[in-house]
# Entry
Amino acid sequence: MERGVQVAEPSGEAATTEAYLSDETVQAILDRQCHRCAGCNAPLAAGSTHFDLREPVICGGPLVPGNLEALCSFCHRIRIRRIRERFAGHRNK
Ligand SMILES: [Zn+2]
# Structure
């Protein structure tokens, strides 16, 4: 359990993803995206970069680096909202 990864996001849920990230994974994702946000293409600054799954686990997405992407805090917030709406939709089927 203890892997020394501190999650800065106070609002639970999506932040749990970050606990699976190793330094190497983080670097690989940032390199792949040229250190830009996957949502709005803004340059990502250290400390305000959020990592999330393209396809969330609750929607069947795998917890692998290929399913992860880096987002700015703005896009991350939008992402969380969308996932919540999607998840709510799934439950109301
Ligand atoms: Zn963004």
The beta strands are 49-53, 68-72. The chain has one domain: 15-91. Helices lie at 23-32, 73-91.
